[in-house]
Amino acid sequence: MVITFLAGIVLVIFLRTVRRDLTHYEELDKEAQAQMNEELSGWKLVVADVFRAPSNPGLLSVMVGNVVQILGMAVVTIMFAALGFMSPASRGTLVTGMLIFYMVLGNSADYVAVRMW
Predict the structure, then answer these.
(1) What does the angle CA 66 – CA 71 – CA 73 come to, to the nearest 5 degrees?
(2) 94 or 44, higher pLDDT
């Protein structure tokens, strides 16, 4: 009962803060919108940035490859754990599986990084 009461108090404080911030940002957004109507707006502002080549394409391709590797490792680990092949009850199985999947998925990360390069 005490935990529910304290959670309710925190929720009320949080909601008041969020509501106050939202009204403040809406006022700022209205002012910014009025200024934007006076200047150029929309696609004309970002057309030069959208089609520009990245300043460091090698780093971008490596980062995308890393994301593919880590995301693939997480998805495969969760699938194997959901199917019951790796139980969270046995401590080393899950971590060992994650490391093995990370190493095996290095090939897919390399492929994605080279294709993006």
Answers:
(1) 95
(2) 94
